[in-house]
Amino acid sequence: MWQKFQLSLGTYQLRYFFLILLLFAVTEGMLIFYVPLQVEAQLGGLLSVGIILAIGNISGILTDLVFGFVSEITDHRKFMHIAAFLSVLILPLLLIQGSWLSFILLAAVWGARFELMFSFASNIYLAKHAPHGRFFEVSGVAFLVRNLGYFLGPLLANLVRFHSTGLVVVSLLVILLVEGVVMYLVFNNHPGEHFTQKSHKLSLYSEYVILKKHFTEVFPHFILSFGVAAFEAMFLIFGPPTFAAINPGLSGLLTAVGLLANVLMPSLVVRFVEFVGPRIALICAAFGVMAGALTVWATLNTVVLLLAIYFCFLCMVVIFVVNDASFLHTLSRLKTSEEDEVISVRSMGPNFAYVIVSLLGGVLVQRAGFQAGVLASAMILIASLMLFKLTKSNDHIRVTPKMYR
Q: What is the Cα–Cα distance from 391 to 283, expressed in whole angstroms?
C-alpha cells in the first residue's frame, strides 16, 4: 500500500493537489469546530446551530445547481480560484459578533466554498489525473488527506480559541495564504495540459438529456452520500457543543477522534475492500455503524465515547472508499461536458443530508438528546446502504483488477 501511496503522490502533480487539499481541509476543520460553538454562545441553543448550518448546506445545494446546470466551467483551476476568494470573505465575518445576519452570510459563503473545492475541483481533477485504474488508491489517499486536515483543524481551533477570536482568524489567514501561494505557483501554469475555456450552448433540455442518460449511474451514489453525510453531520454539527458540556477539556479530541480514524485507516480499508469485495465490506460496515451508535447511545463515559466514535468513523471509511472509488471510476468515463451535471447531482446528497440533520436533528437533539440523534442518523445510513445495494448494479461495484492494480 505504501508503494501505491507513493505512486499516487508522484503522478500528474497529485502531491501538490493533495497539499492544497490538506491546507483547505485544516481550515474546514477549524470552522467545523469553531462556528457551532460561536453560534451557540452568541445566538443560544442547539436549534440555532442547526439553522445556521442548514443555511450553509442550502448554499451548497444552490452552488451545485449554478455550477452544475447554469455555468459550464470545466477547468478545475477556476473552481479552486473561486473557492480561495470565498475563503478570504469568511475571515471578516468571523470577527462580527452576535449577529444573525453575519452568521447567515458566513454559512452561505462557507457552504459555497466547500462545494467548489471538494465537490467540483477535487472530483474533476482526480477523475482525470489519477493513474489509470487506481481509483481505490487515489480515493483512499484523498480521503486520508482531507481527514488529516479535519483532525488537525479542531485541535488547532480548540487551542487558539481560548486566547481570542482574532487569533483564530489570524491562524486561518496564514493557512489560506500558504494555500493560495501553492495554488498560484503550481496550477496557474499546468505543464502538458491545455485548459481552453469553451462556451457550450446548452439548453435545459440538453441538461435533462445528460441527467437522464447517467441517472442510473449517479443515483446510487447520491443515496449513499446522503446516508454517510447524515451520520457524519450529527457528530460534526451537534457534537462540539455536546462534548463541551460532557468534558470541556477533551471536547476538541472527542470531535476530532472520528476524523483520526479517517486519517489512520484508509490504507487498511483499501486492503480489506480488495480482499473481501465491496459488497461484503459494506455489510460489515453496516453492522459496525449500528454497534458503534448503540454504544454512543448507551454511555456518557469519555473513554468509551472516544472508542465508539472512532469505531463508527472507521466503518464510515469503508463506505466512503467504496462509494467514492466507484464514482471516480464512473466519472472518468464521461465526456468533459457531462462531468459538472453528474457531480452536481451526487454532491446534492450530502448537502440535503446536512440540511435535514441540521433542522430536524436540532429539534430531536433538543428534545431527546444527542445520543438519540446519533441512533436515528445511524438508521438513515443503514437505509441508504440498503438502497445502494438495490440500485447499484453488481457490475459497477465489483472490484476488478483494472480498478485497483
A: 15
Q: Which helix (H) or strand (E) holds 165?
A: helix 165-187
Alpha helices in 299-404 (DSSP H): 302-332, 336-368, 370-391, 394-397, 401-404
Cα separation values, 126 from 67, 103, 132, 200, Å? 18, 33, 11, 23
Identify whether the C-beta of residue 312 lies closer than 8 Å to the C-beta of residue 293.
Answer: yes
pLDDT in tens, 264-294: 877 788 788 878 887 888 889 999 999 999 9
The torsion angle over the Cα atoms of residues 306, 312, 314 and 320, rounded to 10 degrees, is -140
CB atoms within 10 A of CB 263: 20
pTM equals 0.70
- Spatial distance between the Cα atoms of 115 and 38, rounded to a whole number of angstroms: 23
- Cell 476488478 belongs to 400
Determine the Cα–Cα distance for residues 382 and 296; give it in Å rounded to an integer: 16
Non-local CB neighbours of 97 within 8 Å, separated by 6+ positions: 42, 165
Instruction: Name the CA radius of gyration of the chain, rounded.
Output: 20
Region of residue 401 (phi > 0: left; psi between -120 and 50: alpha; otherwise: beta): alpha
